[in-house]
Amino acid sequence: MKVTINQKGTERLLKGHAWIFRSDVTSVEKEQAGTAAVYSHQGKLLGEALYSPKSLIALRLMTRGPEKITQSTIRERLAMALARRREMYPQDEAYRLAFGEADHLPSLIVDRFGDSVVFQTLSAGMETFKDHIVLCLRELLGPRSIFERNDSSVRQHEDLPLIRQAVYGEAREEIDFRFSGKTFAFQPLEGQKTGFFLDQRFNGEAASRYAKGEMLDAFCYVGQFGLHAAPRVASVLCVDASEPALAQVQRNVQANGFENIQTRGANVFDFLKECDLEQRRFDTISLDPPAFVKNKASLKQAWRGYKEINLRAMRLLRPGGILITSSCSQHMNVELFERMLSEAARDARRPIQLLEKRGQPADHPILLSMPETEYLKCYILRVE
Ligand SMILES: C[S@@+](CC[C@H](N)C(=O)[O-])C[C@H]1O[C@@H](n2cnc3c(N)ncnc32)[C@H](O)[C@@H]1O
Question: What would you measure as the largest C-alpha separation in the chain, in angstroms?
Answer without folding.
Answer: 69
